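hiii, so i know i said id send this last week but things got crazy w the move. better late than never?? heres the sequnce for the chain we talked about at the cafe, plus the structure i predicted for it. fair warning i was half asleep when i ran it
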Amino acid sequence: MKGERSRRAGTAGRTVARLAKQVERAIAPLDLSLPQYRVLALLGDGSTAASVLARRLAVSPPSVTALVDGLVARALVERSPDPVDRRRLTLTLTGEGALLLAAADAAADERLGELAALADGDAPALVAALDGWGRALDRGRDERARGQDGTAATVPAR
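okay and structure toks below
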């Protein structure tokens, strides 16, 4: 029993890592890395400051700056002064960025759908399970945000 448990330990985490690699491969032809895709997805939910983006991605601000610099250079993201606080810059997805995000979403969904079809069982249930994980991640993020400032975050995470 103990040996079986240790063989299964980490299976879910390893599967998620393998799925992430499949998404990365699906979006690679679009010249998009997984971290860039995550940034575009978050900005697809609405404009935000780099510091907020760093917190939502759980990375350091310099890491976000480097990612955003590359996306700005490709005209996928735009930096503009915050209308309330001119010292602060707001990051916004451009029209071209929105088109690339839609193409990346479609490529990732197609690849995950292909893999789900290979599984024993119901492919739609596998996809629905991923949606359930997304909701759980959103709730976890909201709870962390409440713990930091006493209010709930309202923008969905990716």
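btw Residues 25 and 67 are 19 Å apart (CA to CA). thought thatd interest u
miss u guys!!
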